[in-house]
Amino acid sequence: MKTIRWFPFVLAGAITACGGGLTTDDYRANALTFDKVAIAQNDADTAAPAMQADSANPGAELVDATTCHPHLFERTGEVIGRVNRHFFKLVRHIGDLIEDNPKLSSGGSKTWENVKGGIDRKLTVTATTNADGSVTYDFELDIKSTGDFVKVASGSLTHTGPAAADVTDAGAAVRVENKGSATFDFDALASVVTTEKARGQISDAFDNVRDPAHGVKRSANITLTNFLPEEGDAHGPRTGGYSWLREPGVGGMFSFQESVVLLCPSNPNNLAADVTTVARWYKASDGGVHGRSDSKATGGQIASGSTWIGMTCAQGQTTAAPAEGEWLMKDELSNGDSDQFQVFTSGVSPCDPLFGAIPDQHDATNDYDFSKPVTFPGEWQ
């Protein structure tokens, strides 16, 4: 069984200095900007999003509650887009603020502050140089309209490797890591910005590594707590965990677990089901992206002992979601048989065999094993 081997890292040791010798550019280079937290499945996902809700209506494809499609459970692209758009709501202020010089510098702390659109925004970053030579940047973003400042985001980033000014000169021969965590509070944001519709919290633990032998590897573990996006969600507030890993030009994976109100099968009492989804993709020898998503749901309105299982496969372009070539949906009973089964295929080989066997109608043997570590073809260790 292949397992993911994470890069070793050194925990921050004893404090040796409070930002000694660091320049303002070092603070800027290690601020929590969008490029450090954005997650992606396709190249286009890394672009800064527009500051308005998606035009798509969440759940719009589920109007016919008599026919369940695997997109009901998977929705990988939608989830990634939502997460990035809501990250951007707060980290964009950080990006704006650090364009100016800090208003205050004291010891290892620097504070930026300005007013935009009637909102006073303040970013405080405190740098600590650790015993191993890494530098930890603790940050807090506060905003206000009137009255006191309200904390809307906070966290830290530890930079290991050359200082920002030296990375270009060192080139690809050195290993650089930016590892940290952040919490985004949309309830707090809404208490200041009265037009804000998002609610709940998102926490993000991220690790971005540039390895001299392999290139860039980025990962994140994201936790949602009673999160409701700005555009609303027919499935209700989401509480769950997301795991993401990507190697640009190679492949990646996105796994998420949620407690969510599913619209299909019929759910008149709005019961919450437990949903798990795993999406994997890689750049194949033909130059295109081959991907597969598997999902399962239990509980809620789904009968006891039954599991709803969905799968989709796609092959094609690298700049956006490739065309879907196969999807499968079944209601699997405890004995492995299925009392409902649907499958759609398009093309000669719509599902890449490197992702494993295709689930069967009357046998659970070929179902995706959600208990295994998630990997993708070509992943470097």
Strand content: 35-45%
* Radius of gyration from the alpha-carbon trace, in angstroms: 22 Å
Biggest pleated-sheet summary: 16 strands, antiparallel
- Give the class from helix and strand content and strand pairing: mainly beta
Question: What is the percent of helical residues?
Answer: 10-25%
**How many beta strands in the DSSP annotation?**
16
Distance between the termini: 14 Å
Can you count the helices? 5
Topology as a string of helices (H) and strands (E): EHHHEEEEEHEHEEEEEEEEE
Question: How does this model look, in words?
Answer:
The chain is mainly beta and 381 residues long. The protein has one domain. Helices cover 12% and strands 41% of the residues. It has helices at 24-29, 34-37, 76-97, 164-170, 186-192; strands spanning 15-17, 104-106, 109-116, 119-130, 135-144, 150-160, 176-185, 199-211, 215-228, 238-247, 251-261, 272-283, 289-299, 307-316, 323-332, 338-345.
List keywords for this structure.
mainly beta; 16-stranded antiparallel sheet; globular; 381 residues; 12% helix; disordered N terminus
In brief:
With 381 residues, the protein is mainly β.
Topology, please?
Blueprint: E1 15-17, H1 24-29, H2 34-37, H3 76-97, E2 104-106, E3 109-116, E4 119-130, E5 135-144, E6 150-160, H4 164-170, E7 176-185, H5 186-192, E8 199-211, E9 215-228, E10 238-247, E11 251-261, E12 272-283, E13 289-299, E14 307-316, E15 323-332, E16 338-345
Antiparallel strand pairs: 1-4, 2-3, 3-4, 4-5, 5-6, 6-7, 7-8, 8-9, 9-10, 10-11, 11-12, 12-13, 13-14, 14-15, 15-16
